[in-house]
Amino acid sequence: MRKGIPVSPGVSTGTAYCIHQIFVNPDTKRLEDSEVTAELAAYETARDQTAVDLNALRSKVESQVGGPEAAIFAVHLSILRDAAFTEKVRTWIVKDRLTAQAALHRLLNEYSALFSRTQDPYLRERLNDVQDVVIRLSAHLSDVPKQNTSLPGSLIVVAGELLPSQVVALGGADVHGIVTEAGSQTSHAAIIARSRGIPAVSGVSGILRQVKTGDAIIVDGRYGHVIINPDPEQLAAYRKIERDFINLKDQLAANRDQPARTEDGQPLQLLANINNAADAEAAVNMGATGVGLFRTEYLYLTHPDVPDEDEQLKAYCEIIDASPRKQVTIRSLDIGGDKTVPYLGHTHQEANPFLGWRSIRLSFEHPEFFNTQLRAVFRAAKYAAENGGKVKLMFPMITTLEELHRVRAIVRRVCQRLEEEKKPFLKPPIGMMVEVPAAAISIGDMLHAVDFVSIGSNDLVQYLMAADRDNPKVSHLCQPLAPPVLRILSQVIRACKRARKPVTLCGEMAGQPRAFTLLLGMGLRNFSMSPALIPTIKELATHVSMEMAEKVTRQALTLRTTANVKRFMSEQLEAMAPGLAILETQ
Predict the structure, then answer these.
(1) Which of the residue ranges 220-224, 340-344, 501-505 has the most confident prediction, judged by mean pLDDT?
(2) CB of 293 within 8 A of CB of 453?
(3) Phi, psi of 38, rounded to the nearest 5 degrees
(4) What pLDDT was estimated at residue 147?
(5) Which of 148-162, 214-228, 465-479 has the lowest mean pLDDT?
(6) Are 288 and 538 in contact (CB under 8 A)?
(7) CB contact set of 319 (below 8 Å; sequence gap of 6+)
(8) For position 166, what pLDDT does the model report?
(9) How many other C-beta atoms are found inside a 10 Å radius of the C-beta of residue 415?
(10) Is the pLDDT of residue 21 over 50?
(11) Does 324 score more than 50 pLDDT?
């Protein structure tokens, strides 16, 4: 048994599917002699299509962003055309009878081993370029990764980490559990796992050296346990827990049409965090009353090139149509940190990417690019209003009042330009995300410049605690129930209530049962979370009165350590709703 960080509750038993660095299908199938020619042709077609993509992307980025930013795609084209790169893939298809996907997988492993031996940062960056080219080739060879149908049981993905591009590559694969070497409760793997309602454990060092594809594996997302090749007794015990977990989720899903209220009748807004239209549909199925966070960066991460205004408008309208009550809060582009796109200049590694050139700071540096998104959002807001819905727009990583003034000025210019062009649009309510401690501390000075506030607790916690949320070495610090976090959240919520500004918390802690009661007691009424968590929180609310929540919160705010808060809240949760304990990570 290995111990990691519990990041998505529940238990799953199944078969390991190992992802090494990038989700390129390591297909073990060997080609028949009659299939080799067709496989070579498929690879050449993929190369031609990738070259077309890269040339188009280079032209589009050059026109929309600039020449220096477009230069990276010339590098990618040179890699694609590299004789040694191509010859290796062709040789392995012909001589070793590998599929093109399997040949790319072998190539990536070979390059990774080669580059891992160098300390030269320039050469290490070239590995990222090779990976990008392989991703594009793989995408043309297969729209989504093929699940190895010869594997028995449910699929448990085991990976070093899951980046946004890898999550996209998972597509519709029938994944029942996730285990990663890196990551934390707010990593991409964790967020995606919770959005799908599947158990996950992160921070399991060296797991890829101990597990191979096809191994039987158990994931216990409550306690962070991973059991490799369990004995029959272990397997039987965990399969019973797995059935109980699935049955409880099915029972809770039946409350989708019930209003969200506390035990004493206080109405609540339970909203959904989404990445795409499929998530929006899941939000409807789970009983959400709207979308509290639409992460627009996934549109950019999954788009083959730079999405233009009309493409964005179409995507936003699709999201609006798919969302509960057509109510959507859109977050402007939040690229940077661990989510990068090369056409915005992310060609060099920053020493501290989460503290550097990212989010609203990046948008300010590319005004035309930023304006394109705002134009599309404002036009989508008009579409929503005409169809009985509503769009709100919020800006991430706001740090100073000056940034809010700058945002407002840009919004005015965009509106003026749309009016001049006589394009139908509607300026939506403008909000800020509180993610930076400086903004949280000075929130009282900033509220006059916004229509609403959304607390991004994932980043706020990591910045407040000076602990990278994706680094398992410091995950013990990156805790939403830490006393300093609770105190600053209480201050922000009180300030918003005094100023009569609507406030929502859209970080992952909104869907955590222990944290929910505390946030409720602080005065929060709007919670935005992964769709799969909504039934749990809706059920929990029926067991909590406002008087009880306020009493529990007052007591919790007097505690001095994270361990004491977690222990106290676990006791309270067990007393209030003992049947929900299986749905909370420990």
Answers:
(1) 501-505
(2) no
(3) -65, -35
(4) 42
(5) 148-162
(6) no
(7) 274, 276, 277, 280, 291, 294, 328
(8) 56
(9) 16
(10) no
(11) yes
CB burial readout 288-326, b (16+ within 10 A) else e: bbbbbbbbbbbbbbbeebbbeeeebbebbbebbebbbeb
Is residue 159 within 8 Å of residue 166, measured between CB atoms?
Answer: yes
- Residue 317 appears among annotated catalytic residues: no
Q: Which two tokens stand for residue 579?
A: 């049947």
Residues 467 and 339: their CA atoms lie apart, in Å, by 18
Least confident among 145-159, 308-322, 452-466 = 145-159
Structure token digits, residue 74: 């010339």
The pairing of beta strand 452-455 with beta strand 503-505 = parallel
pLDDT per residue as tens digits for the range 232-255: 999 999 999 999 888 888 888 888
User: Hey, what domains does the chain have and what are their CATH numbers?
Assistant: 2-23+147-250 (3.50.30.10), 33-141 (1.10.274.10), 257-583 (3.20.20.60)
* Cβ neighbours of 366 (radius 10 Å): 18
CB of 77 closer than 8 Å to CB of 23: no
Selecting among 176, 188, 225, 366, the annotated active-site residue is 188
Q: Tell me how far apart the alpha carbons of residues 334 and 362 are, in angstroms, rounded to a whole number.
A: 9
DSSP conformation class of 46? H
Residue whose C-alpha is closest to residue 222's, from 189, 240, 245: 245
506 counts as catalytic = yes
Q: Which pLDDT value is given to residue 186?
A: 64
The span from the CA of 506 to the CA of 476, in Å, is: 22
The token pair that represents 14 in the structure block: 């199944």
The active-site residue out of 18, 478, 496, 506 is: 506
Round to whole Å and give the CA distance between 106 and 83: 17
516 token code pair:
């929910």
Cα torsion angle, 380, 385, 387, 388, sign = positive
* Arithmetic mean of pLDDT over the chain: 86
pTM exceeds 0.85 for this model: no
**Three-state DSSP state, 28:** coil
- Distance between CA atoms of 342 and 305, rounded to whole angstroms? 10
β-pairing verdict for 291-295 and 269-274: parallel
